[in-house]
């Protein structure tokens, strides 16, 4: 494991969102559900060993775990009980996950790590879906 991997490993608590509710609604999520999800403050546990990337999301209602392989496409189960195809890459302090949904929609998650936390930026290939940011503190 290289130093940047150790820098990314850890437990992170969501502290705030920017445009996350709007991002979800633009993707067709019901406004009430989007508001509910926007208010959640999950914990993310990230572990990187070699080419294996494990991201566990823990919430009061349960947890999900994504197991990714760097530079390989894998099937990933996400929190909405949806299976997507994802490929992850890593460069310096950034983990990028490029995903394709069951209807061909494309999304990108970029995790940018620092010593004190992480920012996850969410993008869509649909120009009507706004960029969203989720801010996490390292705990």
TrEMBL record:
Gene3D superfamilies: 2.40.128.20. This is Uncharacterized protein. It comes from Phaedon cochleariae.
């Amino acid at each position: 494991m290289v130093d940047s991997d150790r820098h990314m490993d850890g437990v992170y608590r969501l502290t705030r969102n920017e445009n996350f509710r709007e991002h979800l609604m633009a993707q067709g999520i019901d406004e009430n559900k989007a508001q509910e999800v926007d208010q959640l403050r999950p914990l993310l546990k990230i572990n990187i060993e070699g080419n294996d990337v494990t991201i566990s999301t823990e919430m009061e209602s349960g947890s999900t775990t994504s197991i990714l392989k760097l530079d390989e496409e894998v099937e990933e189960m996400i929190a909405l009980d949806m299976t997507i195809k994802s490929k992850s890459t890593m460069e310096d302090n950034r983990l990028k996950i490029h995903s394709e949904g069951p209807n061909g929609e494309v999304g990108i998650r970029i995790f940018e790590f620092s010593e004190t936390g992480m920012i996850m930026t969410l993008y869509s290939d649909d120009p009507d879906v706004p960029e969203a940011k989720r801010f996490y503190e390292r705990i």
